[in-house]
Amino acid sequence: MRVGLIGAGAIGRQIMAALDERRNIETLLFRPGGRGTPGSLLASVTVITAMPEFIAAAPACVIEAARQEAVAEHLPAFLSHGIPAVLCSTGALADLSLRLELIRLAEAHSTQIVIPGGAVAGLDYLRTVSHVPGTEVTYTSRKPPAAWRRELAERGLDGDRLREPAVLFEGTPEDAARRFPRNANSALTIALAAGERAVSVRIVADPAAQGNSQDIEVRGPVGTAHFTLVNAPSPGNPKSSAITALSALQAADGLMLKSGLRFS
Ligand SMILES: NC(=O)c1ccc[n+]([C@@H]2O[C@H](COP(=O)([O-])OP(=O)(O)OC[C@H]3O[C@@H](n4cnc5c(N)ncnc54)[C@H](O)[C@@H]3O)[C@@H](O)[C@H]2O)c1
């Protein structure tokens, strides 16, 4: 079976390594125009630089692990050819017109755009309660001050001397995605699952934070829920979480495996 991949960075490399351990999987790495330098690649990886060739190779699905711009650039072509896509750069869907266009294409070509949990979890629960009026969701992202030096300096704060948590952002998921494009994928993922109007986002620089931690609190008529994730860094990049690549692979498996036990 062939699996398409866009992006050979921290997440893409982890995905390629995991797929390489499986039998009978060829990874098709799409590098438009030979962009960037992927370095040494595994034998199970074939690099394709032109879209027509990539489409003709008919991957069972494509995992996007590139950057937000890549979603608008490449997804329309995949969806128009009925190839389902798993998105890591979910923040791109803060652009409502892009989101609606991608959904229209997926519907027109009987295919799917799959949003994995990525660095967060509980999307099954959020989807379920999204239909219940009165449900409220608060998503809080906490990282050590070192991850937010520039943003703290803009507020006259020194990341090395911060003693108390500093709230850098409080607002809607769309604003979070626009203002922190490299960091707000999770905010958009939660908003897409729970419904944007139900979600408020907090981004906090916290001297007590243990790595990248994510809190999702849900309150509503059917109950309360609290998910906390403290994500370990990815093997190839301490700024990325190892769980994101695994989550994208799990989502791709859902598209590739046509039979057997399945979780929603
Ligand atoms: N959903 C989540 O929870 C979550 C978590 C972490 C990261 N992310 C997102 O996943 C994406 C990948 O993260 P990463 O840490 O691997 O990034 P990275 O910077 O390490 O790697 C990005 C790769 O994509 C390639 N690329 C960039 N623009 C491209 C384009 N337009 N077309 C094709 N290839 C392109 C680059 O050459 C590079 O190989 C980022 O958008 C990141 O924000 C999502």
Structure at a glance:
With 264 residues, the protein is of the alpha/beta class.
Can you give keywords for this protein?
33% helix, 5-stranded mixed β-sheet, globular, binds nicotinamide-adenine-dinucleotide, 6-stranded parallel β-sheet, alpha/beta
Description:
By secondary structure, the protein is an alpha/beta fold. Helix content is 33%, strand content 26%. The strands form 3 sheets. It has a 6-stranded parallel β-sheet, sandwiched between helices. Helix 1 (10-20) packs across helix 9 (242-256). The longest helix has 15 residues, at 242-256. The protein is globular. Nicotinamide-adenine-dinucleotide is lined by residues 6-12, 32, 35-36, 65-70, 73, 88-90, 118-119, 182, 185-186, 189, 237, 240, 244. Nicotinamide-adenine-dinucleotide (NAD) is lined by residues 6-12, 32, 35-36, 65-70, 73, 88-90, 118-119, 182, 185-186, 189, 237, 240, 244.
Largest sheet: 6 strands, parallel
- The number of helical runs is 9
- As residue ranges, the low-confidence spans are none
What separation lies between the terminal Cα atoms? Answer: 23 Å
Overall 3D geometry?
A: globular
Which structural class do the helices and strands define?
alpha/beta
Mean of residue pLDDT values: 93
User: What small ligands are held by the chains?
Assistant: nicotinamide-adenine-dinucleotide
- State the helical fraction: 25-40%
**Beta strands, count:** 13
